[in-house]
TrEMBL record:
PROSITE patterns per record: HDOD
Name assigned to this protein: HDOD domain-containing protein
Database matches in InterPro entries: GAF-like_dom_sf, HDOD, RNase_Y/CdgJ
One Pfam family per UniProt: HDOD
SUPFAM superfamilies: GAF domain-like (SSF55781), HD-domain/PDEase-like (SSF109604)
Species annotation: Thermosulfuriphilus ammonigenes
Residue spans crossing the bilayer: none
Length: 451
């Protein structure tokens, strides 16, 4: 017979949970998203850089951004940067968080134990996508409600992935002492929040929070919704959910529609999770456009950026971010950095970079006096070569030794204003230079028309 978990075991778990249950990748995503500033160009660059580090995350974010849940108008979106600009920072933060959680948990969980994990994830995702639809009827922001609902059970998920034996003993204790288990979960939640640098406002909505007992608080609402979703998934009983939303003036007839729309969104993220949710009669949502293959990504990106320029709805900073992503993905680069000419015109200052390790380049200065850069700017043509041919760019060589470089100069009215620096392992050819030149010209057009 399985023993129940003890407070002594919880104490030991809390001491080493950061080392044994990191959910690598997801913890970084949570910390980055939690600390992003208000919606502005810098936040958009940081979020795009985070997503573009991982191809799987990138492709799923694009797919979700094209889903009817987030994009009911059906406007086709090809790039992460356009998705951020078109849909706004908060929806993409939600998508990135939801996608990263699924990708990381599946990667860390052995196949033999995935069934139980999928049950937990189905409850978290269904609650998050239903709560987001209800946000306008509550005092809470849609992103805040989504994130708190998605992460409500994060301690259970961590235990089920990394400490399955302890989690089984926790469930055993929960059957007879549910209140003490809630206190145990929050004890561990405090430690996880500290490890992941979660803000207090998020910590106090995690499962077991004392604030969940106070009516009228976000913690209380999220806890009620999670319990209702638990009963829906466990027994197919929708009555608790109907009761939980009746104070929001949601009629019982509307509830299946909320569930159906949430399930359709989850299907775009993971059909595996959606299969764990009982099917209910609900309106069918249209399928999103087919995922863009990398083969034709470049041409779709050119079309998307051109349309964005023609609409005059986007700032030149937003267009430059789209161009940076198109260079990174279209030329299969490890990283792309955008550099801007300094006021004394003697250095290039790296504004931001996309790709793994690229954000560490931010603010780096590359001297251009009497260097190869002077020739590149005077010719105003793309240049390719090895990183070793650019001794001035020491920071780049230190991070990416032995890489090949493509420099695409930004020259307006014979004056250098900056450059795109593209790096990858294999050499760049004439076709790559042509693609870079076309994208660079769109960037120049964006800068000149926004003057």
């Amino acid at each position: 017979m399985t023993e129940t978990i003890s407070w002594e075991e919880i104490r030991k778990l809390s001491e080493n949970i950061c080392e044994t249950a990191d959910l690598p990748g997801f913890s970084e995503t949570v910390e980055t998203i939690a600390n992003l500033g208000p919606e502005n160009d810098l936040s958009a660059q940081e979020l795009a850089a985070l997503i573009l580090k991982d191809y799987g995350l990138t492709s799923k974010v694009i797919r979700m951004a094209n889903s009817a849940f987030y994009n009911p108008s059906g406007t086709e979106i090809t790039t992460v940067s356009r998705a951020i600009v078109y849909l706004g920072l908060n929806p993409i933060k939600e998508i990135a968080l939801a996608t990263s959680l699924f990708e990381t948990v599946m990667r860390e969980t052995p196949t033999s134990r995935r069934e139980k994990i999928l049950k937990l994830l189905s409850q978290s995702y269904l609650c998050a996508y239903i709560c987001r639809q209800l946000a306008e009827k509550t005092p809470y922001e849609d992103e805040e409600l989504f994130v708190c609902s998605l992460l409500y059970q994060i301690v259970r998920i961590v235990l089920a992935v990394y400490h399955p034996g302890a989690y089984q003993r926790l469930l055993k204790r929960e059957a007879s002492h549910p209140d003490s288990v809630q206190r145990m979960l929050f004890r561990l939640a405090e430690k996880v929040a500290d490890c992941w640098s979660l803000p207090p406002s998020l910590l106090y909505t995690l499962e077991g929070s004392p604030r969940s007992k106070t009516p009228g608080t976000l913690a209380h609402f999220v806890g009620q919704m999670n319990q209702a979703i638990f009963e829906l998934i466990k027994d197919g009983d929708v009555s608790s959910l109907k009761k939980a939303v009746e104070n929001l003036k949601v009629s019982p007839e509307e509830t299946p529609g909320l569930i159906g729309k949430a399930i359709e969104a989850i299907k775009q993220l993971s059909p595996q999770i959606a299969m764990e949710i009982p099917s209910l009669d609900s309106p069918k949502q249209p399928e999103p456009p087919q995922e863009t293959s990398e083969g034709d990504f470049y041409f779709r990106a050119i079309s998307e950026i051109s349309a964005s320029l023609a609409s005059r709805k986007y700032t030149y900073e937003e267009i430059l971010l789209m161009v940076s992503e198109a260079l990174c993905r279209g030329l299969t680069c490890e990283t792309v950095a955008l550099s801007i000419m300094s006021l004394d015109r003697r250095r290039l200052i790296i504004r931001y970079g996309l790709g793994p390790k690229a954000q560490s380049l931010k603010g780096e200065a590359i001297p251009i006096d009497n260097s190869l850069f002077q020739t590149i700017f005077s010719l105003a043509k793309e240049w390719t070569g090895s990183i070793e041919q650019l001794p001035e760019a020491g920071a780049l060589e230190k991070l990416w030794p032995g890489r090949q470089v493509l420099i695409s100069p930004l020259v307006i009215s014979d004056k250098p204003v900056g450059a795109f620096l593209c790096l990858r392992g294999q050499s760049f050819g004439a076709e790559d230079c042509q693609k870079a030149e076309a994208l660079k010209n769109l960037a120049i057009l964006a800068i000149t028309t926004n003057r």
